[in-house]
Design brief:
- It is an enzyme of class 4 (lyase).
- It comes from Stenomitos frigidus AS-A4.
- It catalyses: 4-CDP-2-C-methyl-D-erythritol 2-phosphate = 2-C-methyl-D-erythritol 2,4-cyclic diphosphate + CMP.
- Pathway: Isoprenoid biosynthesis; isopentenyl diphosphate biosynthesis via DXP pathway; isopentenyl diphosphate from 1-deoxy-D-xylulose 5-phosphate: step 4/6.
- Belongs to the IspF family.
- The chain is globular and about 50 Å long.
- Helix 4 links the parallel strand 5 and strand 6.
- Helices cover 29% and strands 31% of the residues.
- Strands 4-1-7-5-6 form a five-stranded mixed sheet. It has a two-stranded antiparallel sheet with strand order 2-3.
- The longest helix is centred in the middle third of the chain and has 14 residues.
- It is α+β, with helices and mostly antiparallel strands.
- The protein has five helices and seven strands.
- The structure holds ligand L45E5XJ5 and 2C-methyl-D-erythritol 2,4-cyclodiphosphate.
- 2C-methyl-D-erythritol 2,4-cyclodiphosphate binds next to helix 2.
- The site of 2C-methyl-D-erythritol 2,4-cyclodiphosphate has 12 residues, from helix 2.
Length: 160
């Protein structure tokens, strides 16, 4: 029987001025960007935590400590590649990823394909193995007030 594991991940970062907005490794034109130690790409962070969680390997803060200057401004897709290598070294491969970004603005639909392509390439997957959706929070709570952007992800791993 094929061995499978599932993991889930969540992240949220604050929206501020004078920061770029990077989601799924794609730069998006917007008057606000996400604050963080790295490039604050919440979607990529949620996917990494889901991959690690599936194998009980901890979370991204364990591998890329926010106290370590080495990760200041780091490209989250480069971190994703490292997490993928760890998964592969443990004998697992990704079956599929599904995710949702919670953002009141900007409209993300025009950028979803680019994000799927970028993350699929980084993970050596087909774009149809990387689901990315967007929703508003209907003006409710922090994401609804545009104080931040959040992302949720689930990842299915298959033993090689
Ligand atoms: N930042 C966003 C949020 C939503 N979308 C798209 O709009 C659809 C409707 O969103 P609701 O939150 O009103 O249900 C959603 O299904 C997405 O297709 C978007 O592109 N960017
Ligand atoms: C990505 C890391 C890298 O230091 O920092 P941040 O960009 O602050 O992101 P967060 O999700 O708060 O914490 C995880 C850290 O590993």
């Amino acid at each position: 029987m094929t061995n499978i594991r599932i993991g889930n991940g969540y992240d949220i970062h604050r929206l501020v001025s004078d920061r770029p907005l990077i989601l799924g490794g794609v730069s998006i034109e917007h008057e606000l960007g996400l604050l963080g130690h790295s490039d604050a790409d919440v979607l990529t962070h949620a996917i990494m935590d889901a991959m690690l969680g599936a194998l009980s390997l901890g979370d991204i803060g364990h591998y890329f400590p926010p106290t370590d200057p080495k990760w200041a401004g780091a490209d989250s897709v480069a971190m994703l590649t490292q997490v993928d290598r760890l998964i592969q070294d443990n004998g697992w491969t990704i079956g599929n990823v599904d995710s949702v970004i919670v953002a009141e603005r900007p409209k993300l639909k025009p950028h979803i394909k680019a994000m799927r392509d970028r993350l699929a390439t980084a993970l050596n997957l087909q774009p149809n193995q990387v689901g990315i959706k967007a929703t508003t929070n209907e003006t409710l709570d922090a994401t609804g007030r545009e104080e931040g952007i959040a992302a949720y992800a689930v990842v299915l791993l298959v033993q090689q």
